[in-house]
Amino acid sequence: MCLETSVGPLKMKNPLMLASGVLDMTRGSMERFREAGAIVTKSVGMGERKGYGNPSVVELEHGLLNAMGLPNPGVDEYLKEIEGIDVQKIVGSIFGKDEHEFARVAKKIEVAVDAIEMNMSCPHAGSYGAGFPTDKISDAVSAVKESVNIPVFVKLGMENIGRRARAAEEGGADAIVAINTVRAMSIDIETAVPILSNKVGGYSGPAIKPIGVRCVYELSEEVDIPIIGVGGITTAEDVIEYMMAGASAVQIGTGVYYRGEKIFEEISKELREWLEAHEYGRIKDVIGAARA
Ligand code: DHB
Q1: Residue 278 contacts by C-beta under 8 Å, 6 or more apart in sequence?
Q2: For residue range 109-141, what is the model confidence (pLDDT) as tens digits?
Q3: Mutate to test the pocket of ligand 1, among 54, 95, 119, 198 (most ligand atoms within 8 A of CB)
Q4: Mean pLDDT across the chain, nearest whole number?
Q5: Which among 70, 118, 196 is the best mutation to test ligand 1's pocket, defined by most ligand atoms within 8 Å of the CB?
Q6: Extents of the domains making up the chain
Q7: Which of 12, 147, 181, 269 is geometrically suited to a Cys-Cys bond with 107, CB 3.0 to 4.6 A?
Q8: CB of 67 closer than 6 A to ligand 1?
Q9: Is any ligand 1 atom within 6 A of the Cβ of residue 231?
Q10: pTM, full prediction
Q11: Measuring from atom 2 of ligand 1, which residue has the nearest CA?
């Protein structure tokens, strides 16, 4: 049973990628994910950022709520950390306040990564992420495309995703990553205080899976570039569902919290069994199967 897939020019031994922000800030923790087709590193910017105070993550009934605040050591320290890393493929997630910053960070990491993921969807970091203006997306993506010669993916959240994805495609993006966490909050009713120090955060996990599947399905009509599905995947069946909606690959983040680092090895095995039982020869044949 062949699990190989590709996202534009990026070829992977299986469609399972570690999503950005999960155990991916040190080389040691990243190398625990050698079974993943690729890993996406925690978003980096030009300079160091401390991030928000604690609590920055809380487990809710159907997922995790987090607001870390884009903590990262800055691009130069990041490059030292990943030097010589032993994983299948490495995708560098980057953020920037404008096209110039995005292009500078992309250029710096190009030598060390296999692809770039532009984070345009952190749901609570002002003009970074989801606040990045839709009318500037196309220029930012073309600036990054002009500064590097590796594939460039654009990660978008559920809000306004159709227009933002078309803008990314216009700028020359090689793929769309959909979706990010969903803007959300939780309040401790005994103290009447929001739980996260940032008050608002991003919700991930099983609760958001149907939203992600819907976005991937609709996007596959809206754009002609490949889509990487992400949001609430914890089982092989979830992977199949995203791929039937039109995803060429998927990312898993919160699923690692529920099933541990072995999730990639386990889901690969479960995928092979599922494909065999359902008489699919290759995972690639599942892509878009639910589309009319
Ligand atoms: C953070 C959260 C996100 O969902 C994201 O895309 C980027 C950063 C964070 O809080 O650091």
Answers
A1: none
A2: 999 999 999 999 999 988 888 999 999 999 999
A3: 119
A4: 97
A5: 70
A6: 5-291
A7: 147
A8: yes
A9: no
A10: 0.98
A11: 122
Q: What angle do CA 177, 29, 260 make, to 5 degrees?
A: 75
pLDDT tens-place string over residues 196-224: 999 999 999 999 999 999 999 999 999 99
155 Cα nearest atom in ligand 1:
6
Domain 5-291, CATH class in plain words: alpha beta
122 is catalytic: yes
Catalytic residue among 39, 87, 90, 122: 122
Ligand 1 nearest-atom number relative to CA 121: 6
For 76, residues 6+ apart whose C-beta sits below 8 A from its C-beta are 108
| Terminal Cα distance for the chain, rounded | 25
Q: Determine the distance separating the centroid of ligand 1 and the alpha carbon of 181, expressed in angstroms.
A: 8
The tokens describing 116, both together, are: 């770039």
